[in-house]
């Protein structure tokens, strides 16, 4: 199991019999599921046998033995007990948030900037700044045009849960490109010391490689051409530097 997927706050209450041969205990579990839901369970064990429990997901007490059936039925009819358990569930929710803050370290996002077909006709171009796999949820994604914040024609998704404790968010900018301008996606997150800037480069890396390869080819061709010209000149009669007498 992913270490971030499971968190359990345990409270143990032990009670021993006089003889010391048998013991019972109550167990309160405040548990976070992988979908970030809280499950609160209060269980009573006697000699390792589960007698009864309150399950916050079901919202009631249930009995696991015949002997406790009647007690449990009465508990389920008792609004005070049910109300108290719902209160405990709320406490569990708050405590878990606090515990998460202590145990879960921020995770740095991975950012990708790409251009897509514009969805509307007002602007011919659209960029997506996709920010993946960050924790915690709080994040700020801003667009800058030549260093100035752009607020119009910007849309964004919510912070979407990946289901593994990490989040992703996608911000869209619709714009009309201007020659020589610089468009930047700025990401602010607690995992960064300073805001991180991702500049939009209209020429993708693969294209750059092609250009680099093309340039190298061209230079190589030029080198052969120069060598060729020199050799040609050297071998041209009358222009030879070596006397032939
Ligand atoms: C609590 O109740 C829910 C819904 O009824 C169930 O899916 C879950 O397994 C129960 N948990 C335990 C520990 O019994
Ligand atoms: C507790 O609630 C669950 C789901 O709502 C239900 O199936 C179950 O019969 C209830 N148990 C009791 C003892 O009321």
Tell me what you see in this structure:
With 245 residues, this protein is of the alpha+beta class. The chain has two domains: 101 residues, Class II Histocompatibility Antigen, M Beta Chain, Chain B, domain 1, CATH 3.10.320.10; 90 residues, Immunoglobulin-like (Sandwich), CATH 2.60.40.10. It contains three helices and 14 strands. The strands form three sheets. Strands 1-2-3-4-5 form a five-stranded antiparallel sheet. Strands 6, 7, 10, 11 and 12 form a five-stranded antiparallel sheet that branches. The radius of gyration is 34 Å and the shape is elongated. The N terminus is likely disordered. It binds 2-acetamido-2-deoxy-beta-D-glucopyranose (2 copies). The site of one 2-acetamido-2-deoxy-beta-D-glucopyranose has 4 residues, from strand 5. The site of one 2-acetamido-2-deoxy-beta-D-glucopyranose (NAG) has 4 residues, from loops.
Number of strands: 14
The whole-angstrom Rg is 34 Å
Order of strands across the widest beta sheet? Answer: 1-2-3-4-5
Strand content: 35-45%
Main location: membrane
InterPro entries: Ig-like_dom, Ig-like_dom_sf, Ig-like_fold, Ig_C1-set, MHC/Immunoglobulin, MHC_I/II-like_Ag-recog, MHC_II_a/b_N, MHC_II_b_N
Membrane topology: Single-pass type I membrane protein
GO cellular component, one term: MHC class II protein complex
Write out key terms for the chains shown.
five-stranded antiparallel β-sheet; Class II Histocompatibility Antigen, M Beta Chain, Chain B, domain 1; single chain; 3 helices; alpha+beta; 245 residues; 27% helix; 14 strands; binds 2-acetamido-2-deoxy-beta-D-glucopyranose; disordered N terminus; Immunoglobulin-like; elongated; 37% strand
């Amino acid at each position: 199991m992913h270490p971030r997927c499971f968190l359990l706050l345990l409270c143990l209450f032990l009670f021993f019999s006089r003889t010391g041969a048998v013991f019972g205990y109550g167990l309160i579990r405040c548990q976070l599921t992988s979908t970030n839901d809280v499950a609160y369970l209060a269980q009573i064990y006697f000699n390792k046998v589960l007698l009864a429990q309150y399950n916050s997901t079901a919202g009631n007490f249930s009995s696991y033995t015949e002997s406790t059936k009647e007690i449990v039925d009465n508990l389920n009819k008792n609004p005070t007990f049910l109300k108290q358990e719902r209160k405990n569930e709320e406490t569990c929710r708050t405590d878990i948030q606090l515990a998460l803050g202590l145990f879960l370290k921020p995770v740095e996002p991975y950012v990708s900037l790409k251009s897509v077909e514009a969805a509307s006709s007002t602007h011919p171009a659209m960029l997506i700044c996709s920010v993946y796999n960050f924790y915690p949820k709080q994040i700020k994604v801003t667009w800058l045009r030549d260093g100035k914040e752009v607020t119009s024609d910007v849309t964004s998704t919510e912070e979407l849960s990946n289901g593994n404790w990490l989040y992703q968010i996608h911000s869209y900018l619709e714009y009309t490109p201007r020659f020589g301008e610089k468009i930047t996606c700025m990401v602010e997150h607690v995992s960064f010391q300073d805001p991180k800037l991702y500049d939009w480069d209209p020429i993708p890396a693969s294209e750059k490689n092609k250009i680099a390869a093309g340039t190298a080819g061209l230079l190589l061709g030029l080198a052969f051409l120069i060598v060729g010209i020199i050799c040609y000149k050297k071998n041209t009669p009358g222009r030879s530097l070596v006397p032939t007498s």
